[in-house]
């Protein structure tokens, strides 16, 4: 099929001081998967908001079937057959799965919402995704991955002819992502156009047919066949220059040093059993596993957010019983860069200055609790320059920054506190190619300076790039450990084999002693 379902013609969108979109063009055809690519700040989110009725364009037109389409709200977009699944979930936690799925068009009887009639359409949408979830179950009880799939089921219920998926696999395991791709293929087979927004280029090249690339608010490649381009071509278009990913420089680790963090036979209320691992000064230890393996939950138990039921934890050689992240920071020097930066990592409605210095107010305070604004600004400005955070000023709210810069602000507050052990959870989810590489270099340099780092990542390439050792988890247990030789093909094969075989034996890197 090649019928044009929706067209953006020379779209312009201006915010105070910023021309977010500057003559963007896009053509979406029936039965295609269209990649919308660009770095953070390139204009992708703004364009999505224009297409879905959140923002009215300041110039140009939206065309549907050749006629101008004027959208005044997301509801107008839904009525026009345009659906969207945002990177940040948009579900009502207290509602059931069925209520969330049918929320935009709930069945009714005699003028009242018919909750029983919600079940059948909800089951149908869940079945299309291969999800075995009770439609009556409250959404708050679901995992992050399950909630993301419910978002997609919600979009399926509206029977959108144009469906925008914004970083849809960010919280999904490889198996769940493949299930999503199967759904996308079924949707396009019946004439839907799926717009796929992702920083994972390997996924883009797996599922997409056509591509539009935005850079600095302009379309530098518009609705072109993806098969005519390589990944390097696309990256060059996104960043405006060749962006070769180079190997990190040598960084020796003293394996005889006392561990900064040592877990011995740890069990938790979440179901972990007999977890033992060490992280030494200057070492990056990776925790890898599929969604649901229990990696983030393990870290949260160590930080006092869940109950440890057995074994013991040592920090810098001393037994530690941690009751809260605050105690972890101030008593043990542990910083935690969370995967959920928008809800836990930064205060979106607060200035960057406050976000960076919140961990050191106690240290900066003088008599009677007075905090010197000059000292506070000096600390924040130093970290902004050190991390290369792109801001208009320290008074700017963190919520106005791109995802990559928000993550840097989140990291900076832990560096301000002179953290002696850093836990980094999914550091580059939803971050563009260039920012991801810069973040990798930053983490590497911190480790080279002696900082011990426990890294959790679902990005296998990221894990192979950064970790000195990879500890593989499945079903809340450690299933194996691999010394990293930074050979992606060899490492990925070994790690995936451990996950699927649940091999409890330690697997040494190629050439390492058994």
Q: In DSSP terms, counting alpha (H) and pi (I) runs of 4 or more, how many helices?
A: 18
Low-confidence stretches: 242-246, 503-514
Query: C-alpha Rg, in Å?
Result: 24 Å
CATH topology (level 3) name of the largest domain? Rossmann fold
- State the shape: globular
User: What is the name of the CATH architecture of the largest domain?
Assistant: 3-Layer(aba) Sandwich
Percent strand equals: 15-25%
C-alpha end-to-end distance? 56 Å
Mean pLDDT, as a whole number?
83
What is the domain tally? 3
Name the helicity range. Answer: 25-40%
Largest sheet: 6 strands, mixed
CATH homology superfamily of the largest domain: P-loop containing nucleotide triphosphate hydrolases
**How are strands sequenced across the largest beta sheet?**
6-9-10-3-11-12
């Amino acid at each position: 099929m090649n019928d044009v379902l929706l067209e953006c013609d020379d779209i312009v969108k201006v915010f105070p001081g910023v021309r977010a979109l500057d003559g963007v063009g896009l053509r979406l055809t029936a039965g295609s998967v269209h990649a919308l690519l660009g770095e953070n700040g390139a204009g992708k989110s703004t364009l999505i908001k224009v297409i879905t009725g959140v923002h009215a364009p300041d110039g140009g037109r939206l065309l549907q079937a050749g006629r101008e389409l004027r959208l005044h709200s997301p509801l107008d977009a839904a009525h026009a057959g345009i659906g969207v699944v945002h990177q940040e979930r948009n579900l009502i936690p207290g509602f059931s799965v069925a209520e969330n799925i049918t929320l935009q068009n709930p069945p009714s009887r005699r003028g009242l919402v018919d909750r029983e009639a919600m079940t059948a359409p909800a089951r149908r949408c869940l079945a299309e995704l291969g999800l075995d979830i009770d439609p009556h179950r409250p959404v708050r009880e679901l995992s992050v991955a399950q909630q993301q799939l419910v978002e997609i089921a919600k979009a399926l219920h509206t029977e959108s002819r144009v469906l925008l998926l914004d970083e849809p696999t960010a919280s999904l395991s490889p198996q769940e992502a493949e299930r999503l791709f199967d759904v996308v293929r079924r949707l396009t087979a019946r004439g839907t156009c799926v717009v796929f927004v992702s920083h994972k280029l390997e996924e883009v090249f797996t599922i997409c047919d056509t591509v539009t690339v935005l850079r600095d608010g302009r379309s530098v490649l518009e609705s072109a066949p993806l098969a005519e381009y390589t990944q390097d071509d696309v990256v060059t278009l996104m960043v405006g220059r060749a962006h070769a990913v180079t190997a990190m420089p040598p960084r020796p680790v003293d394996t005889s040093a006392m561990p900064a963090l040592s877990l011995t036979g740890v069990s938790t209320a979440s179901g972990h059993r007999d977890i033992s691992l060490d992280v030494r000064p200057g070492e990056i230890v990776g925790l890898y596993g599929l969604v649901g393996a229990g990696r983030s939950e393990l870290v949260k138990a160590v930080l006092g957010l869940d109950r440890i039921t057995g074994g013991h934890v040592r920090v810098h050689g001393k037994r530690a019983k941690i009751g809260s992240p605050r105690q972890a920071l101030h008593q043990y020097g542990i910083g935690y860069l969370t995967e959920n930066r928008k809800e836990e990592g930064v205060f979106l409605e607060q200035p960057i200055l406050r976000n960076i210095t919140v961990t050191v107010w106690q240290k900066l305070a003088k008599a009677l609790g007075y905090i010197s604004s000059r000292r506070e600004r000096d600390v924040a400005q130093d970290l902004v320059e050190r991390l290369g955070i792109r801001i208009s000023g320290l008074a700017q709210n963190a919520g106005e920054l791109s995802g990559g810069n928000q993550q840097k602000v989140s990291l900076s507050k832990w560096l301000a506190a002179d953290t002696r052990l850093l836990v980094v959870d999914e550091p580059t989810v939803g971050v563009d190619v260039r920012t991801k590489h810069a973040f990798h270099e930053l983490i590497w340099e911190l480790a080279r300076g002696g900082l011990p780092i426990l890294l959790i990542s679902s990005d296998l390439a990221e894990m192979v790039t950064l970790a000195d050792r990879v500890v593989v988890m499945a079903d809340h247990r450690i299933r194996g450990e691999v010394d990293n030789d930074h050979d992606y093909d060899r490492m990925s094969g070994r790690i995936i084999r451990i996950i699927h075989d649940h091999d409890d034996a330690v697997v040494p890197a190629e050439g390492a002693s058994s």
